[in-house]
Amino acid sequence: MSIFSDNFLWGGAVAANQCEGAWDADGKGISASDVCTGGSHTRSKRITRTLEPDTFYPSHEAIDFYHHYKEDIALFAEMGFKVFRFSIAWTRIFPTGMEETPNEEGLAFYDRVIDECRSHNIEPLITISHYEMPFALTEEYNGWSSRECVDLFVKYAVTLFKRYKGKVKYWLTFNEINAGTMPMGGFLSLGILNEGTTDFTNQIDNPQLRFQGLHHQFVASALAVKAGHEIDPDCKIGCMICHITTYPMTCNPDDILEAQKRNQILNQFCGDVQVRGEYPRFMDRYFKENGLVIKMEPGDLEIIKEGCVDYYTFSYYMSNCASADPELEKTSGNLMGGAKNPYLESSDWGWQIDPKGLRYTLIELYGRYQIPLMVVENGLGAYDKKEEDGSIQDDYRISYLKKHIEQMREAVADGVDLMGYTPWGCIDLVSASTGEMAKRYGFIYVEKYDDGTGDLTRKKKKSFDWYKKVIETNGEVLE
Ligand code: BG6
What span is annotated as the signal peptide, if there is one (predicted)? Predict the structure, then answer.
């Protein structure tokens, strides 16, 4: 007997800007990700103001899911997916974000994707905004720093709820909304460029714009949740948080307070707003001490209160430590690094691998919010090697995922209400942070390389059959 419920949602996750390609097909507009070049730098250091000739932009072709979706979804079905998490590119629906009527060809593409999932009994789980927005909104309004984006986003979300009503039950408003609390989220999540800057490869962080933008996203998300529930009372709309699990470096009370503060600002702030419908009081002090003033319109707090999410989802890749000593050795991580934990090993990109941290996180989150949880991203970005016979023996990935699933089991035994699990990049795709293809997460290998070459052929890795077995046995057999 499996500890996971019979209807546990096993599957995988991707995002439009990292897999679709076809960046200008069928009326699609230019998105924020489309102006980011390749390379190993963070996205904010890879922005070009206009599209430059002879420059490689990884999102433009990506893995061309746009033209391979049938083949890819068939492979997901072969693994036994119950759910497929993907995002809709805002720019396929409203190319600049400012049109009055949606682009029918864009809507029709997602009809096809959703129908294809349904034909294989795969439940679509759709992220409405995943690290891309119309670049025209950056140019016109400096992204989410402007209030204008609220109504434009709600118009877009309502269009989706109406169109896909009855076919899509699970929605997420913003991917990793708490990215806005971190410098890296400025352009990546909020489409904000530093005002007056001419050097687009060297963005200077502006926390005031970021936190104001985040407030606008909270209001937009809450309005979308309200509208979604009115349009389709059966649908479930969740939040999505990048969980930066942080331990105190030592039992020194200064380290403990430092870890608690990081956890509040980076993780709990956004979760509290979206689940509890309130700005947590600890933010007052943070705003004050950092000279941040959040401009709110009358009624904003009521909207936030009325637009609480139905379930809580998060990404979990790693953990790190907090220390009062700024000199301690640092490590990198998803969106945010921290002090290095001597007990953990790291991925090729320096992210510290911590399966038990997932159990800890699930228990903490369920204790705080008491609503269903879902792990919608987890996985190991690694350099995969093709053997002489063409096979990819990704035992390191199997080992990573196995250990995390074991800890999910423990968390469920600890009483956590866990709905599902969608490992990240179930098919290889472009890295969000670096733009690389070399950082692979998939069960399916894609012939596409960092210089843009590759014939896009799909190939099952060793982990493909392993995950198939995991799903078949509802998480019982992990060998
Ligand atoms: C999450 C994002 O932060 O992590 C994804 O939601 C991203 O878009 C994933 O791809 C892994 O990060 P990276 O930088 O390895 O692609």
Answer: none
Atom of ligand 1 nearest to the CA of 242: 3
Cα separation, 311 vs 209, whole angstroms: 28
Q: What is the CA radius of gyration of the chain?
A: 21
Q: Verify whether ligand 1 is closer than 6 Å to residue 175 (CB atom).
A: yes
Q: Provide the domain count of the chain.
A: 1
Q: Tell me, what CATH number does 54's domain have?
A: 3.20.20.80
Residue 477: inside a domain: no
- Does any domain span residue 307? yes
Two tokens at 88?
């809709």
Do residues 13 and 424 lie in contact, with contact meaning Cβ atoms separated by under 8 Å? yes
Helix (H) or strand (E) holding 286: helix 282-289
Q: First vs last Cα of the chain: how many Å apart? A: 17
Residue 426's domain spans which residues?
9-472
Which token pair is 174? 């913003």
* Whether the Cβ atoms of residue 445 and residue 384 lie closer than 8 Å to each other: yes
Residues 73-86 have pLDDT tens digits of 999 999 999 999 99
Tokens at residue 404, please?
């995390």
Q: Show the tokens assigned to 142.
A: 């400096």
Dig out the tokens for 374 from the structure. Answer: 């879902």
Give residue 195's pLDDT: 60
What's the pLDDT tens digit per position in 339-372? 999 999 999 999 999 999 999 999 999 999 999 9
Answer whether 15 contacts ligand 1 (Cβ < 6 A): yes
Q: SS3 for 43-87, per residue? A: HHHCECCCCCCCCCCHHHCCCCHHHHHHHHHHHHHHHCCCEEEEE
- Tokens representing 29 are 């507009």
CA 259 centroid distance within chain: 23
**CB–CB of 392/462 below 8 Å?**
yes
Q: Is residue 269 part of a domain?
A: yes
Q: Is 127 helix (H, G, I), strand (E, B) or coil?
A: strand
